[in-house]
Design goal:
6-stranded antiparallel sheet
């Protein structure tokens, strides 16, 4: 493990090394500096194993023995801030708008020498937060809206849905409009496409950042248990008693005293159940010997006595109601007679099977002995003691049909569910009960009342006793009904909750008696204000005017309030769509101060953007800061760069008329390389721009073609931040015209001269190519004439010009010129102040000469890369005014 400390971002060898581990990065930095404070921007950058660690995470990152740690001092006040912009994983105010790192962070720590020009970026793609529904964004960034844009605000807490009364459900929502302050036209507040102000059942309030929300219940954070809710064919968990299979048994068993053994006892069976038990046994029939002489039945009849009326089912031709005539002392033989007194004498002789038991009786469960045995006694059907009960069942192997009465079984509880997530506690829960078919008893054309109740039970853990609360209700309607029952707990716990209905569900056709457990909620700790966030509270009272699917389609159109630039300083926040305001907001979120931003240049650009109505309107939810800035400036044909003072600025690509620094063989250290790119077969012949239209807030496309384009292969552009068809078309046409007319690229080297230029500087380039411009050194100057160091050749019949490179590098001219008395003399009138003439303490004045059409190659600088202490490499593209021909035109219809 080694900690390497470098004195700058450009050194390759560490100035200091340390062998330390087991401490945090922050602790190590503290040990080396007395003035360290935790903050998001630091004068140093730290990487561990090639991965940059955000300064806000230094205290959490413990250095391991196997880690390789690099700490580099960042430059301050100029290009170093550019690196910080790319290195930092930033927080915009308190927004937690995390723009991902703009480059492969490990590589940025040891970059090439910084280049002036367009900043490259390989960060994650910026995603719009304009989903067409309200959604939760757990763990995600809070979106930032710029300009004017539609928003489907995100949930700040769980929506709370409860019953205000049995026929009215209320939905309370607390929504995040976005970071910062906004101007919101309430006419744009809608559910789906319907304005909220047109819905009498909807109310809303807008709260500024930090405003107190304690006066509304919408701020309460109610957790909804995922385990409770709709099931197959039901809107909730059905609260029922047992079903037929739960209270029946069909199979074999053995009678033993008053017990049935060898059976399967259902999980719902309880002591005190009553029902029918049909016991079929094997018997033998002995013919009585003639008419009027009773047949004899041999079997196990321990449960019978002589003289009782019995019900018989058999396969020996004896079925119905009879009377036991005789029974032997061992109760193994009986004779029967009809209820009219005639002996049963026509049974089928031989072996058979029979179920026989006393009429008008039922069996009562004395004890559930085990999962395979129950103890019973026979009782009269009214529940009183049967005087003929012998205390014994047939002592034999039996075929059993056991059917118990469900009314004797208490209704079942739902499964126990945790009311809040792990790690959370609550002291208040709510349970929703729903009657999908209404409640009552149908009596011809009316519905009579029916009273019901439910029990809500809670416990602290599986070893604690259950605490019940009973809620009752009475209704007489076919209409759907709902109830919200609230239970207060004595302290904050993570409770388990279960629910049951207290009366057996009557499933007869004339009974409306179906109940469902549809939702379990718990109130968690909640916030009563949100710093730096504009909040929208909406309450929807149940109404057939709103489809349920629209409840999560609340939307609005908001305009962001941001400082604007006036007189080179920032104003108080105001509703704005200005490109410069959006850019400054993102840049300041990186920790930049006003003096590190070229506010004057941005203010000058607004003098162009404003009259053209070039604005930026978009919602960011993620991405790199660099990408955000580029997206913002693209709406105004501009790009970000650094000015020579190291300030972050913007440059707009547009019509140019005044040259900046000139470059010729006199200040180039390598020959000018000119490369022409011919049209390729697979090259796009058109551009298709996708943008969001502010009229409909839907994605639209506009085609951008030049005359002769077939549109067979188009380049597709997704244009975010532009919400107007004409402006989207203009940007697409700028791209198409750049494809068509920027075919030349240039490259050359200089000493330090090129550092006077910046990204998209408009410059003349000159070369030694015959037929093009010529460069010489100024040797003398007068009001009408100059002399130069090199012979210059005039071409017959053509107009010639002279320009020169001033001592600050700026190109002056061109001025019309004619042939002097010799090839070193030119007749030209150059306005004062005149350029310097040799001898000079500074670099001599360069004279540019040639025909009006070919004295130079007009170009735009695209990059300047320092190649060492005294050299730089320059790249440029050709300037062609045709690129800008559609900048002010309207899109074709």
């Amino acid at each position: 493990m080694t900690i390497n400390v470098y004195s700058s971002i450009m050194t390759n060898e560490p100035d200091e090394t340390y062998d330390e581990f087991g401490i945090s990065i922050e602790d190590f930095v503290k040990s080396q500096s007395d003035c360290y404070e935790r903050k998001k921007a630091q004068p140093i950058a730290c990487s561990v194993n090639g991965n940059v660690i955000s300064p806000l995470c230094w205290h959490k990152h413990v250095i391991k023995k196997t880690d390789s740690v690099d700490i580099r001092v960042l430059p301050q006040g100029s290009v170093g801030d550019f690196f910080r912009a790319n290195l930092a994983i930033v927080t915009v105010g308190t927004s937690e708008l995390f723009f991902k790192a703009a480059e492969e962070l490990g590589k940025l720590l040891v970059p090439d020498l910084p280049k002036q020009g367009k900043v490259g970026s390989q960060g994650a793609q910026i995603e719009a937060a304009d989903a067409r529904a309200n959604t939760a964004r757990l763990g995600d960034a809070i979106p930032e809206l710029f300009g004017e844009y539609i928003r489907y605000p995100d949930y700040l807490n769980n929506p709370r849905r409860y019953y205000l009364d049995t026929k009215t459900q209320v939905l309370e929502l607390l929504l995040c409009v976005g970071i910062g302050e906004y101007s919101i036209d309430t006419d744009t507040l809608k559910i789906g496409d319907t304005p909220l102000d047109e819905l009498s059942t909807v109310s809303y309030q807008i709260f500024e950042p930090g405003e107190d929300l304690s006066g509304i219940s919408n701020h309460e954070n109610w957790y909804v248990s995922n385990e409770v809710g709709s099931t197959t064919g039901s809107s909730g968990i059905r609260l029922t008693t047992v079903v037929f299979d739960d209270i029946t048994y069909f199979g074999s068993g053995t009678g033993s005293s008053d017990s049935l053994t060898g059976i399967t006892v259902g999980p719902e069976w309880v002591d005190g159940m009553t029902g029918s038990i049909k016991m079929t046994q094997s018997i033998t029939v002995t013919d009585g010997g003639g008419a009027g002489i009773a047949d004899t039945f041999t079997g196990n009849f321990e449960h019978l006595v002589a003289g009782i009326t019995v019900n018989v089912e058999s396969d020996v031709n004896v079925n119905g109601t009879y009377v036991v005539t005789t029974i032997n002392p061992g109760k193994t033989e009986i004779t029967l007679e009809t209820t009219g007194g005639a002996p049963v004498d026509s049974a089928t002789p031989g072996s058979g099977s029979m179920s026989i038991d006393k009429d008008a009786t039922e069996y009562y469960v004395l004890d559930i002995v085990s999962t395979t045995e129950i103890q019973v006694e026979r009782r009269l059907s009214g529940g009183s003691t049967d005087p003929d009960w012998t205390g014994n069942l047939p002592q034999a192997s039996l075929t059993l049909e056991i059917i118990f009465d469900p009314a004797a079984i208490p209704p079942a509880y739902s499964e126990p569910f945790y009311a809040c997530p792990e790690g959370e506690t609550t002291d208040e829960i709510e349970v929703d009960i729903f009657a999908p078919n209404g409640i009552g008893v149908i009596d011809e054309d009316s519905v009579d009342p029916l009273s019901r109740s439910v029990t809500v039970e809670w416990r602290e853990d599986q070893f604690s006793p259950w605490n019940p609360t009973v809620f009752g209700f009475t209704a007489s309607t076919r209409d759907q009904l709902g109830w919200t029952f609230s239970v207060s707990l004595p302290s904050k716990i993570r409770p388990q909750v279960r629910v049951r209905r207290n009366q057996t569900e009557i499933t007869k056709l004339d009974h409306l008696d179906k109940l469902e457990f549809t939702e379990l909620r718990s109130k968690l700790d909640t916030k009563t204000s949100y710093d730096d966030v504009t909040v929208l509270a909406v309450t929807i009272t149940g109404s057939n005017k709103i489809a349920s699917k629209s409840n999560n389609q609340i939307n609005l159109v908001a305009t962001r309030k941001l400082p604007e630039i006036s007189g080179g300083t920032l104003t108080a926040p105001a509703a704005t769509r200005k490109i410069s305001a959006a850019m400054v907001r993102v840049v300041q979120s990186l920790g930049y101060t006003e003096d590190q931003i070229d506010l004057d240049a941005l203010e000058d650009l607004e003098q162009v953007w404003g009259p053209r109505n070039d604005t930026f309107n978009y919602v960011f939810s993620s991405g790199t800061a660099q990408e955000a800035i580029e997206k913002i400036l693209r709406a105004g044909f501009a790009e970000p760069t650094l000015n020579p003072q190291g300030q972050l600025t913007a440059v707009r690509d547009g019509i140019r008329t005044v040259f900046e620094q000139g470059y010729s063989p006199e200040n180039m250290t390598s020959p000018l390389q000119r490369t022409f790119t011919a049209i390729q077969v697979d090259e796009p012949d058109g551009v298709e721009v996708e943008y969001t239209d502010a009229e409909t807030w839907t994605k639209e496309t506009v085609n951008c073609f030049l005359p002769g384009d077939s549109g067979i292969k188009v380049e597709k552009i997704q244009l975010d931040g532009v919400t107007d068809r004409d402006r989207a078309w203009r940007i697409g046409m700028r791209q198409r015209r750049s494809q068509a007319f920027r075919r030349w690229s240039y490259a050359f080297d200089t000493e330090l001269d090129s550092l006077n230029s910046s990204y998209l500087s408009y410059v003349p380039l000159l070369d030694d190519v015959p037929g093009y411009g010529k460069v010489a050194i100024l040797e003398s100057i007068s009001e009408t004439q100059i002399t130069v160091s090199e012979p210059l050749e005039f071409e017959a019949g053509k107009t010639h010009v002279v320009a020169y490179r001033d001592e600050d590098g700026t190109t002056r001219g061109p001025y019309t010129a004619t042939q002097g008395e010799d090839e070193y003399t030119i007749n030209v009138s150059i306005p004062q102040p005149w350029p310097k003439v040799l001898p000079s303490t500074q670099e001599p004045t360069h004279i540019y000469f040639g025909t009006t059409e070919r004295w130079h190659f007009p170009a735009l600088i695209t990059s300047i890369n320092p190649g060492g202490p005294l050299t730089a490499s320059v790249a440029a593209t050709n300037y062609d005014a045709r690129v800008y021909d559609d900048d002010d035109n309207l899109a074709p219809s």
